[in-house]
Amino acid sequence: MSKVYGRLPALSRAGSHLPDSHASKPGVAMDLTSSFSDLDDLPDQPRIRVPPPGPETRALAQRLQGVESQNVTYLGQQFPVFWRRAHRAMVEDADGNVYLDLTGAFGVAVAGHTHPRITAAIREQAGVLPHGMGDIHPPVKKVELLEALAALLPWKEDSRITLANSGSEAVEVALKTALLATGQPEVVAFQGGYHGLTVGSLAATAREDFRDPFRPRIYPGGSFVPFGQAPMDEALQALERTLAERGGQVGAVIVEPIQGRAGVRVPAEGFLTRVAELTREAGALLIFDEIFTGFGRTGRCFALEAEGVVPDLICVGKALGGGLPLSACAGPRHVMDAWPRSGGEALHTSTFLGHPLACASALAFLEVLEEEGLADYARREGAVFQAELTRELSAIQGVREVRGRGFFLGVELEEAGAGVAVMAAALRRGVLVLPAGDRGEVVELSPPLVLSAEQQVTARQILVKAIQEVCRPAADPGVRP
């Protein structure tokens, strides 16, 4: 496998944000190249040496079972595999099997795994300041990242941002902001919505299996209304009715522009526009959760651009950190200034807020996002991939539709649990996918935005075989064997 993504730029003050004393050190360019020598032998196509999960993976599963809380990692006969290394869209497990990654590691690896530019930025930052004091003595990198991020947001220089460490925490900040700005505590979210699993964000996460064990601790002022897939009238009527019934107590309406864990559910055209109107008529703030959809995934920097709806607050994460934990809640100054000026104690902060390693990685990722045209890639290549996959699956009974936007796609199958079965069938053939949907009936695709044409063909071929194995083939075979 090539150890570069194209031209590997030399570190410079403009590209790496390093001061002169570090940018000018000799040997940096050589270090950048040599650091990827242990990835050279990764192939560009799947390679299964032993049926997964192999013996090394099974041994690791036993070790993990001996130390980790039993609720964290599912350990079964067919799943998981343990990752050892990854580059671009390829992942190697502990047994030497190599997989084509169509998950993007939960959508994080938008620029691909171990992008040389991002990895170099992390290595350089680790050598000068791996940790700072984010809200006391802030690292320089925090300022640079906030400026770069603000330039991408709808409010530009009027943006105000709070950094955080996870998507769930960014949602917590947004919900707190809405309370401070409106004085109203209640929140309206959408059926199928997923906004995190911390206690505050669970008030807006719809799945009952996540909520039930902790219901006594979950804020009770959360309401859920249907998500606006076509036809959307019923969903909008339910939202309008709920806002009216709550008597002005709703401070926030939170929505994913495209629902992710619900199965890549795309709203009907005009739905988000009307949601924004109803929310503001009720005196509440509109929060867009773009943790999954942000930074090129849907073919634009943010999914909100598809309808041109500007929310009052936006939550971002996943891809932002370039592989490191980082998230943010942002909004215009008049909304974010509901938080009082710090008098020495921030009302919401953490030890790792504005972590310099994560900020350096994010800065490099944002540069790569623009310079390599990743959003354009998602829009162009995702549309072709969706059209081809739809055609190739057309002869298989049990496939309802292939939907999505950009390179954020979902294959909905008829049977409950079919997405889970496809995940296992694809894994055996060397492709990583995830299930989604309320019934595990969707195959979710959010690959790194670096798949070659050959890799896309392989991905579709293996997906078709895996889905064909799980579903019943039609009488008129039209799927490639």
Describe the overall structure.
The chain is α/β, with parallel strands linked by helices and 481 residues long. It has 16 helices and 15 strands. The protein has two domains: 50-113 and 374-470, Aspartate Aminotransferase, domain 1 (Alpha-Beta Complex); 120-371, Aspartate Aminotransferase, domain 2. It has helices spanning 13-16, 20-23, 28-34, 55-65, 104-107, 116-126, 140-152, 167-182, 208-211, 233-245, 271-281, 333-336, 356-371, 374-393, 418-429, 453-470; strands at 83-87, 90-93, 98-101, 159-164, 186-190, 222-225, 250-255, 285-289, 313-316, 327-332, 399-405, 408-413, 431-432, 434-436, 442-445. The strands form three sheets. The chain has a seven-stranded mixed sheet with strand order 4-10-9-8-7-5-6, with helices on both faces. Strands 1-2-3-13 form a four-stranded mixed sheet. The longest helix is centred in the last third of the chain and has 20 residues, at 374-393. It is globular and about 60 Å long.
